[in-house]
């Protein structure tokens, strides 16, 4: 990915490409018991998650990523373990935590699991935002799970309250009975255009079911709109976290 990004940046220096190193949620949850008969049981500890994430951070940094992306967060305690690991490795390598001081930007993206508007571990969008705002993030957003149309009210919360840039990369609709995604590039871009029109986003893209055609269409419509405005005092506050 590093080599390809550099190759395309060299071809068009006015449109640089960046590599984001994705750090997923893992297949374990630190907040919820997998055993309904033993609510106090946990399949993994915070320390175990932090150790696993730290190994991933080191590998991504060694691979030359420009950004670290903690994504598809269904349990904020898992995300906190990832953020702890990032801070630990940054200290180990003398990398500033704040991107304004030369650090590597950190993006955070949660996932709303159903119409309740909450993550799997039960947090509302605002609670999710508050729980990760102790770190000077580059952006906070939502991805996966719901399609673009269903994501709107939760993105609105982030757009109204986040002191960081806001991202969204939903699935191409919901999967059909075979697990495939039927929403085409045009339909998805049509559903996401109101987010741009209303100034809710700084970063957009696609998750499950999306293809290069989807991203191409999103890029075309994004060119017609200005990104969400982040108040200067918000950014200054971000720098002082």
General description of the model:
The chain has one domain (2-239): Homocysteine-binding-like domain (TIM Barrel). Helices cover 41% and strands 14% of the residues. The protein contains eight helices and six strands. Helix 2 (46-62) links the parallel strand 1 and strand 2 (67-73).
Write the layout of secondary structure elements.
Layout: H1 2-11, E1 20-23, H2 46-62, E2 67-73, H3 76-92, E3 106-110, H4 125-132, E4 139-147, H5 148-161, E5 165-171, H6 185-197, E6 203-204, H7 212-222, H8 232-239
Parallel strand pairs: 1-2, 2-3, 3-4, 4-5, 5-6
Helix pairs in contact: 2-3, 6-7
Please bin the fraction of helical residues: 40-55%
Task: Outline the low-pLDDT stretches.
Answer: 235-241
Count of helix runs: 8
Which architecture name does CATH use? Alpha-Beta Barrel
Along the chain, the helix and strand elements come as HEHEHEHEHEHEHH
**Shape category:** globular
CATH topology: TIM Barrel
Fraction in beta strands: 5-15%
Across the major sheet, the strand order is: 1-2-3-4-5-6
**What is the CATH level 1 assignment?**
Alpha Beta
The largest sheet, given as strand count, sense and whether it forms a barrel, is: 6 strands, parallel
Number of domains: 1
Distance between the termini: 32 Å
Q: What's the overall average pLDDT, rounded?
A: 93
* Radius of gyration over all CA atoms, rounded: 18 Å
Which superfamily, in CATH terms, is the homologous superfamily? Homocysteine-binding-like domain
Question: Total number of β-strand segments?
Answer: 6
**By helix and strand content, what is the structural category?**
alpha/beta
């Amino acid at each position: 990915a590093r080599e390809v990004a550099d190759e395309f940046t060299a071809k068009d220096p006015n449109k640089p490409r960046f590599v984001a190193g994705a750090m997923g949620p893992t297949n374990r949850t630190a907040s919820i018991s997998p055993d309904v008969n033993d609510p106090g049981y946990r399949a993994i500890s915070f320390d175990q998650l932090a150790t696993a994430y730290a190994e991933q951070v080191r590998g991504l940094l060694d691979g030359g990523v420009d950004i670290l992306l903690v994504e598809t967060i269904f349990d904020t305690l898992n995300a906190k373990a990832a953020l702890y690991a990032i801070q630990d490795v940054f200290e180990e390598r003398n990398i500033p935590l704040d991107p304004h001081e030369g650090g590597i930007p950190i993006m955070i993206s949660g996932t709303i699991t159903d119409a309740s508007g909450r993550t799997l571990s039960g947090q509302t969008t605002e609670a999710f935002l508050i729980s990760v705002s102790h770190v000077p993030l580059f952006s906070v957003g939502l991805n996966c799970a719901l399609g673009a149309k269903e994501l709107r009210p939760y993105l609105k919360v982030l757009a109204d309250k986040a002191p960081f840039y806001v991202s969204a990369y939903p699935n191409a609709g919901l999967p059909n009975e075979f697990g495939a995604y039927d929403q085409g590039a045009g339909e998805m871009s049509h559903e996401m255009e109101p987010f741009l029109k209303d100034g809710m986003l700084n970063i957009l893209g696609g998750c499950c079911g999306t293809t290069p055609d989807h991203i191409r269409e999103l890029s075309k419509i994004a060119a017609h709109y200005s990104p969400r405005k982040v108040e200067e005092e918000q950014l200054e506050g971000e720098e002082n976290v």
